[in-house]
Amino acid sequence: LTIMGDASMELNISPPDDTSQQDSLFSMTDVFLISLITGLFTYWFFFRKKKEEVPDLPKMQSVAAPVRDSSFIEKMKKTGRNIVVFYGSQTGTAEEFANRLSKDAHRYGLRGMAADPEEYDLSDLSRLSEIDKSLAVFCMATYGEGDPTDNAQDFYDWLQEADTDLSGLRYAVFGLGNKTYEHFNAMGKYVDKRLEELGAQRIFELGLGDDDGNLEEDFITWREQFWPAVCEHFGVEATGEESSIRQYELVVHTDVNMNKVYTGEMGRLKSYENQKPPFDAKNPFLAQVTENRKLNEGGERHLMHLELDISNSKIRYESGDHVAVYPANDSSLVNQIGEILGTDLDTIMSLNNLDEESNKKHPFPCPTSYRTALTYYLDITNPPRTNVLYELAQYATDASEQERLRKMASSAAEGKALYLSWVVEARRNILAILQDMPSLRPPIDHLCELLPRLQARYYSIASSSKVHPNAIHICAVTVEYETKTGRLNKGVATNWLKNKVPDENRSSSLVPMYVRKSQFRLPFKPSTPVIMIGPGTGIAPFIGFIQERAWLKQQGKEVGDTVLYYGCRHEREDYLYREELARFHQEGVLTQLNVAFSRDQAEKVYVQHLLKKNKENIWKLVNEENAHIYVCGDARNMARDVQNTFYEIVAEFGNMSQPQAMDYVKKLMTKGRYSLDVWS
C-alpha cells in the first residue's frame, strides 16, 4: 500500500510540470514530444500498475491460509471425525479427560478428537452442523479466582464478544473445579450458559467435578450417563467394543545420534544448553539456587527459603506473581519401576501417535530414554486414575488381580468404593500398585503412554523486584507423610527443592522455572492501607509486599498503614522470617505485626481470632480509609474462616444484616479490594 501511495503522488506532481512546458512553447516539435512523453508515461503507468497488482493476490491468500490451517472443521472432515472434545487445562487433568472421552467415541460407532482451543478458530463452531452426527464437548477447568485456564483465555474472550448464531451446534460441558474456592466451576458454568444463549443445543446436563472431593468419581458418574444420552440423541448403539486401543506405537532407537535425544527439556531440543528468551512454560529458564536455608528452628517439618538467580534472563516479575518450577521425580522410585518391570531404563525410544493427523505427535518429548521420561516427564507419585487401571488390567496374569483392577475401573458402586479406599485414600502410586500386585507386569512403553505428565509446581514469590530485580525468592514446606499401607510418601517438588544446594559447579543447583502473572497486586497508590493475612507459608507474597512498601518509603513516597496478620504453630519452632518482620516493624514499615501461635496454649488461637480482637481497627481501615485486604494460604479452612470473620465485622460495625454484609464483602472482591491467593 505504501508503494501504491508513492506512485499516485508521482502522478499528481508530473502533469503540472508537463503543462508548464506546454504554456511556454507551442511549436509542432514540442507538441509531438509532449504527445510522445504523455503516451510513454501512460503506457508506463498501466504497465507498472499491472505488475504491482500481481503480488497482492498471493498476499491475500497467505493471510487466509492460517485460518484454513486452524479450522478444526476441515480437520474433522478430512479425518472422518464427528465429535470434538475441547479442553481448558492448567494442570493436564482436563486434557486427560478430553482424551478419554474422544477415545470412548469408537465404542458407539463415532470418531472423536481432543482439541486445544488455543490451536483453533472457535468461530468455526457455527459450521459444526455441516458434519453428520456432530457434537462438541467442552472439558473446562476453572483457574484462580474463577478465571479461564491460560489455553482457554482466547476462547473465553471470543465467547464474551460473540454474537454468532450457534443454533446448529450440539454440545455438552464437564467442568473441573474445587468447592473450597469462591468461584466453584465458574468457567464450566459460563461456557454451558453462554453456548445456550448463542442458540446451541445442550444434549446433556452440565457436569461439575469437585477436586476437593473425588474428581475422578465425579467424571466417571457424569460420563456413564453422558454416553447413553448421546446414543439416544443420534440413534446409535454401543458396539460392545471395550478393547484397549493404543494411541501411540513404540519405536526403539538402536543407532541414534545422542544430540537428537531429549534429556528433560520441555520444548526445544537442547534448550537447557542454549538458553534463549523469552522464557515461559514451554521454554523455562535454568535458574541457579544461590541460597537454600531452613527457616524453622524446630519441629518435625522442614520449612525453607530459596533464592533463584534470574540475572541475564530478561525475566520480569511483580510482587504477588507466582514462580513455576519443573521438578524431577526421585531417582530411587524411577529405578524401582525399572527393576520391577525388568527394563533397561537407558533404552532410547519414541512413542509416535498412530493418528498421523493429530497435532500431538508424542505424549512427551521424543526420542528420549525411559529413565528421562519417568524422571522429568511423567507423574509417578500420584494415585493413577481409573482409566490407567482399566488399560493395565489386561497385563495381570492372576485372574483375581485382573478382576480387582477391572472392578476399580468400573462405574459400579462397589468398584468406586474399592478404588476410593484401595487407591485414593491409601495414596497408592503406580509403584505401590505394581508392588502389591505381583502378577501385574505391563510393558513399560504402554505404562509411559498411560501415565499423566508431571506438572510444574507454583509458588507465591516471596520477594519484591524493586529490591531484588535479579532474584526470585521461594518459601515452601517439604511434604512428607506415611500412608495407610505404611509407605513414606514424599512431595515431588518440595523434596527436590530441599536438595538444591548452592553449588559453584551449577549442575546440582539448577531449577527450570518461569514466572506466571497474577492479579494479586499491591494498590496503585502507595498511600492506600493494606491488611495482609497469611499464616504459615502464606506469608510468602507479603514478604514481597512489605519489601516493596519499604522501598517506596525510601523513595520518599507516602506509604499507608501496612498491617500483617501472621500465624504459626509455635513461636520457638516455626515463626518464619521472625528477624525480618521484627526489623520492618521496628523501622515503622510494618505498622502492625499481629502473630497467632496456635499451639502455644491450651486453646488454639488462629489469625481470625486476632482479626476479631482488632475488629474496630479493621472496620476503620476498610470503611474509612479504603484499605485493601489480602488473604494467602489454605483455602479449605483458613480463607473461609477469615472471610466469615469479615462478614461478622462488617455486619456489626456497618449495622448490616448477614446477607448485606456478605454482599459488602463480595463488592470489595469485585472492586479488587479483597484478593485471594489460596490453595487446597
TrEMBL record:
SUPFAM superfamilies in the record: Ferredoxin reductase-like, C-terminal NADP-linked domain, Flavoproteins, Riboflavin synthase domain-like
Keyword check for Repressor: no
Entry keywords, A to Z: Endoplasmic reticulum, FAD, Flavoprotein, FMN, Membrane, NADP, Oxidoreductase, Transmembrane, Transmembrane helix
Keyword Transmembrane: yes
Transmembrane segment boundaries: 25-46
One biological process term in Gene Ontology: response to hormone
Domain Flavodoxin-like: 83-227
InterPro entries, sorted: CysJ-like_FAD-binding, FAD-bd_FR_type, Flavdoxin-like, Flavodoxin/NO_synth, Flavoprot_Pyr_Nucl_cyt_Rdtase, Flavoprotein-like_sf, FNR_nucleotide-bd, NADPH_Cyt_P450_Rdtase_alpha
FAD-binding FR-type domain sequence ranges: 282-523
GO molecular function, one term: FMN binding
A single cellular component GO annotation: cytosol
PROSITE patterns (UniProt xref): FAD_FR, FLAVODOXIN_LIKE
Cofactor: FMN; FAD
Pfam families assigned to the protein according to its UniProt record, in alphabetical order: FAD_binding_1, Flavodoxin_1, NAD_binding_1
Enzyme Commission code(s) on record: 1.6.2.4
Enzyme class: oxidoreductase
Protein name listed in UniProt: NADPH--hemoprotein reductase
